[in-house]
Amino acid sequence: MKLLIIANGQTPDINTVQGLIKSADYIIAADGGMHYCIQNNIIANCLIGDMDSNDTFKKQLPSKTTIIKIDEQESTDMEKALKYAISLKPDCIDIIACFGKRMDHTLGNMLILHNSAADIPIIMHDDFGKMQILNAGNHVLDTSKGKTISLFALTPVENIKLSGFRYPLEKENLGPVFFGVSNVVDHVPAKITFTAGRLLMYEVKNPD
Predict the structure, then answer these.
(1) Judgement on whether residues 10 and 26 belong to the same structural domain of the protein
(2) Which of 61, 124, 178, 180 is the most buried (most CB within 10 A)?
(3) How far apart are CA 18 and CA 40, in angstroms?
């Protein structure tokens, strides 16, 4: 099962959104993300959050949308949505509208992604590309020659090896804070291998 979370930030271009909606088997609106769903005739399977953004259109909610209200304020609506999404045990979780607008929300969502403990792919999309977590291990990238890849480590990463990249690494240790912006895939398959730590990987999409 492929799952899509719609948050309350800036939505990507319509082609990206339509492609993700078409491929999703289950759609979750994270509180204020329901505004976008209603405005664009998207039927969310589930609306989740503390509902502080939704008093104005409760009568417009589709009858097929399940409402899960969680009053506690110790987690954000994104955290609530992601925790519920992971509990459904999907094969992949895509997230849109998680960046843009307020910078604190953008940074918070990036940290939520970084701290997520799921073993399944969790991918955040914006207008320019997509970001996901890489856990320690061997990763063969499903990408093409010429792709731009940026890597970020918020905690130490050990014995990282990059092969197939214009700027390779050979079993180096990174961190505790590292950013490698705009590396390029020169050969496929490109591979990323490391034995400890966690990376945020951002892949720039091809221009239209």
Answers:
(1) yes
(2) 124
(3) 10
Domain that holds residue 195: 132-204
Q: Are 23 and 2 in contact (CB under 8 A)?
A: yes
pLDDT tens for residues 116-141?
Answer: 877 899 999 999 999 999 999 999 99
Q: What pairs with residue 150 in β-bridges? A: 202
Give the up-direction half-sphere exposure of residue 148: CA atoms within 13 A in the CB hemisphere. Answer: 10
Per-residue pLDDT at 116:
86
The predicted pLDDT at position 32 comes to 87
- Tokens coding 206: 């091809």
Task: Indicate the number of domains in the chain.
Answer: 2
Strand partners, 192: 139, 162
Q: Which of 196, 132, 185 is nearest to 163 (CA)?
A: 185
**Residue 54 token pair:** 């939704």
Cα–Cα distances in angstroms (integers) from residue 112 to residues 45, 98, 118, in the given order:
23, 11, 11
Give the β-pairing of 148-153 and 178-184.
Answer: antiparallel
Report strand pairing: 178-184 vs 191-204. Answer: unpaired
Strands 157-163 and 191-204: antiparallel
For residues 108 and 147, state if they share a domain: no
Which residue ranges in the chain fall short of pLDDT 70?
53-59, 207-208
